[in-house]
Amino acid sequence: MNLQEYEALRLFASAGAKVPKHILVKDVEGAAEAYKAIGGTVALKAQVAVAGRGKAGGIVKVSSEAEVRAQAEKLLKSEIKGLKVESLLVEEWINAEKELYLGFTIDRSAKKAVALACGVGGIDLEDLVKSKDFTLVREHIDPLKGLMRYQAYHLAKGIGLKGGAIIRFVDLSIKLYQLFKSLDCELLESNPLALCKDDLLIALDARIIVDDNALPRHSELAQSSLDLNPLEREARKEGFSYVDLEGDIGVIGNGAGLVMATLDTVTYYGGRPACFLDVGGGASSETVEKAVRLALRNQRVKVLLVNVLGGITRCDEVALGLVNALQANRTIPIVVRLVGVNEEAGRRLLREAGIGYYESMEEAAEAAVKALRGD
Amino acid sequence: MAILIDAKTRVLVQGATGREGSTHTASMLNYGTKILAGVTPNRGGSTVSGVPIYDLVSEAVESHPEINTSIVFVPASAAPEAVYEAIDAGIKLIIIVTERIPIHDTINLVAHAERKGAKIIGPNCPGVITPEVAKVGIMPAHLFKKGRVGIVSRSGTLTYEVAWALTRSGFGQSTAVGIGGDPVVGLGFVDVVQMFEADPETDAIVVIGEIGGDAEERLAAYIRRQGLAKPIVAYIAGRSAPKGKRMGHAGAIISLGSGSAEEKRAALIDAGVNVAELPSQIPILLKKAIQRRA
Which residue, A63, A189, B235, B265, is the most exposed by fewest CB within 10 angstroms? Predict the structure, then answer.
């Protein structure tokens, strides 16, 4: 879960990191009030949890109330990378002598957390990792020992810090690593981290992604779903894995790998998937029914392709769910591939309801693409 | 022989009395797997499908010292502790079926297992099957058939799909290993491919990867460095997945500018691996790869 920036800033501050003064607002009046309280020059920051927000125009520097009103109005009407801007952060403008990067994430291959630092800030980690123009210094963290001060010291020297800044950076790194670990983060970063006068370090931006699987033990966090669109939010509530895609063939299946392979097969035959919907293992007829209804609410779905290989999932349950969902609501072609446990019983149900089915994923995907073309 | 699971495998089921645990205990027994004991705290003294249940792993291992493998069905909140208990009781192969274990817990337990010399498979995996010998997992066994192709996969259902396609084409399997769909897992592709390479009962290897992480790229680098005597075919799921979206598996996400199916395919092809465009092409490519080597 991507935390909202103001929440990440609050957590940074509670961990002992310095952050700029900031106020969260939802409308133009609020932005004007916040500006009066902070004064001087401020940054207006669109609260959408996407990387590259700055580049996409989501951060504006303003120095007067009139400007704040004009820019806030514009931002609050905008969409950034497909996500509607619903609130803004009005944040004190900090003059940095230098901008840095400090972050923590998981190195999957090393099976460890890793601390990352760079002497340049404000560039997406994605680009930092790929680019050869910047030196990204890394320290892998042994889970038994945690981040050691000598490792943080090594990072500080590696990005060219000197004198008092080194000690401040080491202290901050240790504090933020503790936050990263205790909050079960997948990513925690300050980008940019400002190096200011007198070796002060101020986190101009705070980004935290908490491991979804750890949310049950973090009831202190407000559940946010800023990075999801409405259908994705609802799917999450139902316990489905659902991802909206750009095409017109809705794909439902059991098991993430199988659904991904189904999308690929549709693409291979020249079709374009409209969604990825994994009902998970052992889905009941009710679950399948809900999944179909959800996918049909996606306006782009013109053909529905259901691919089930029954193991823990029983084909008769799947068929029953399909029949129930489509009884009242069969406005578009549906293509089914149904094999595995209890397939005969499942197929009988489909036949009785006049729904055809296929033996293989390839046949079904091809048929879905043809159905779309009206062949 | 095969790998990981064979006729000498003696199994402990942790979380045997739960819904999943009891269902799959029955199914594994049915397949011929030698399950000696189960563990559920406070349920010691009961039985599941005739298997005696103990409160503690140490008690189970004391009564059944032949136990050499554990399969974990314990819910995510308690699963890490169950795994530590198995490691500390000296069990050297632990298969974690449980999904939704927090990633920092997995990092910790994988590190502990490494220090104690235990192998972890999973979490979030379908387990391991050596067809017609034993299954320690949740796969629908009728899709698998004894043979000489080793399968290693990050997925569950897709593994069944591929195994079934192989079975129908006359390619039985020596062992199929689901390493799990989480970002951090115990055994990886390279570990399992090395085992298949050394296994006299495996003639060819099928790798089923997916987007996210760099496990496939690491395998490619390993093969370029070390070479591989046995024919190998791979399939990578997720070519049509968008960036930054999690495709069901916690680990299936293209992030930090890498982990796309195209990069993985390119790395594997560069290492001389035959990469299928569709799962159904795997048996065809396998046949060709075997003929070329012969």
Answer: A63
